[in-house]
Amino acid sequence: MKRKTMMIHGGIVGDEHTGAVSVPIYQVSTYKQEAVGKHKGYEYSRTGNPTRFALEELVKDLEGGERGFAFGSGMAAITAVMMLFNSGDHVILTDDVYGGTYRVMTKVLNRLGIESTFVDTSSLEEIEKAIQPNTKAIYIETPTNPLLKITDIAGAVEIARKHNLMTIVDNTFSTPYWQQPLALGVDIVLHSATKYIGGHSDVVAGLVVVKSEKLAEDLHFVQNSTGGVLGPQDSWLLMRGIKTLGLRMEATERNANEIVSFLQEHPAVEKIYYPGLPSHPNHEIAKKQADGFGGMISFDVGSEEKANQLLQKVKYFTLAESLGAVESLISVPAKMTHASIPKDRREALGITDGLVRISVGIEDVEDLIADLKQALED
Ligand SMILES: *Cc1c(COP(=O)(O)O)cnc(C)c1O
After folding, report:
1. Structurally, how many domains does the chain consist of?
2. Phi, psi at 118, each rounded to 5°
3. CA-CA distance, 187 to 183, in Å (whole number)?
4. Could you tell me the sign of the dihedral formed by the alpha carbons of 170, 286, 203, 323, in that order?
5. Is the pTM of this model over 0.70?
6. Residue 142's closest CA among 87, 100, 180?
7. Which of 71, 97, 141, 172 for mutating ligand 1's site (highest number of atoms within 8 Å of CB)?
8. Which pLDDT does position 348 carry in this prediction?
């Protein structure tokens, strides 16, 4: 089954009891048992809920794994995955990882003895250098936020296997429509489904898909024990979003390409970060491991003042955190999504005060370009 077909026909389709074409929202917490322990597969909705299960089956199919899991947010998903580790274990992570991931590793999980090192994983050498005797996993975000750096997933898997480490990929920016890390040998793939998978700025959610039965068992134990599950309404919204994920990813990428061409010609733009550009340092790897480059573009306009002017003047780009929705969004990572990263660390990474990030929506691209054009004028 091809991917766009799977988005419609994958997982559990509709409701076998009524013939409903869409999976019903099972707004329920507990289930009647015929006798003690005799039930139809559901006992209590933290452990399992039919609507959530339908979503988990769908994302499992899309990522090509053993089992899917839905959580109340991307951070709940990431935290649950980290709960697979023990005190004293060490994880290597991408250095310009999502700000919340950096925060949970360095301010919460560190207190429980889970150690982390952040390295530029776009360099396989850097990954290998960071391996310690207690290292248990390599956690990769690719492309990254907001600099859109790319890590060679298959290359990282090779290193991980050599050292008996687990590999985890945050696939939020690419979605399973463009990139399927499990097929490249990764053990766990996860998402902030708040972004492209939901796609309509109306739900906060996280998804995980694991490759092996053992990991499925372990993560279900963590999910049920810690309880950060996604509710049935939000599970349904994600399934609804996924039906058009392929169409949306194609539309956003088409728009992104035209916007990048426009920005390249514009004198006010000093630097553009987009993996689809042949000048992007990891363009060849991006092309090899993903079928699309996505709809995230970052560009540097040189100063905080110029960035502010742009934000003030745009009409169709909504000033907001988050990304991956049908509407175009604009943000200044240094002051918004990445504000929790200390300033000196931020600047060392290239996240300057003049760096603007746009999440390209599916509006008519002529309107989007005209909007950026008037907003960039002096
Ligand atoms: C937003 C985001 C997260 C966190 O997800 P939430 O749904 O906001 O908790 C994690 N990783 C990436 C790449 C993100 O963009």
Report:
1. 2
2. -105, 120
3. 9
4. positive
5. yes
6. 180
7. 172
8. 81
Distance of CA 133 to the CA centre of its chain: 29
The residues pairing with 170 across neighbouring beta strands, listed in sequence order, are 141, 190
- Going from the Cα of 22 to the center of ligand 1, the distance in angstroms, rounded, reads 27
CATH number of the CATH domain containing 256: 3.90.1150.10
Contact predicate 320/311, CB 8 Å:
no
Ligand 1 test: best mutation among 97, 121, 145, 194, most atoms within 8 Å of CB?
194
State the pLDDT confidence band at 349, using cuts at 50, 70 and 90: confident
> What pLDDT, on a 0 to 100 scale, did the predictor assign at position 96?
83
Q: Which of 208, 243, 278 is the last residue of a domain?
A: 243
In the three-class reduction of DSSP (H, G, I as helix; E, B as strand; rest coil), residue 355 is classed as: strand
Distance 32 CA to ligand 1 centre (A): 36
Whole-number Å distance, alpha carbon 187 to ligand 1 midpoint, is: 19
Give yes or no: residues 171 and 238 share one domain: yes
Mark whether 250 and 239 lie in a shared domain: no
Q: Please identify every residue annotated as catalytic.
A: 46, 98, 170, 195
Q: Which domain holds residue 289?
A: 246-376
Same domain, 160 and 309: no
**Rounded to an integer, what distance in angstroms lies between the CA atom of residue 149 and that of residue 252?**
19
Q: What is the CATH number of the domain that holds 100?
A: 3.40.640.10
Residues 252, 230 within the same domain: no
Coil vs helix vs strand at 322:
coil
d(CA 372, CA 356): 12
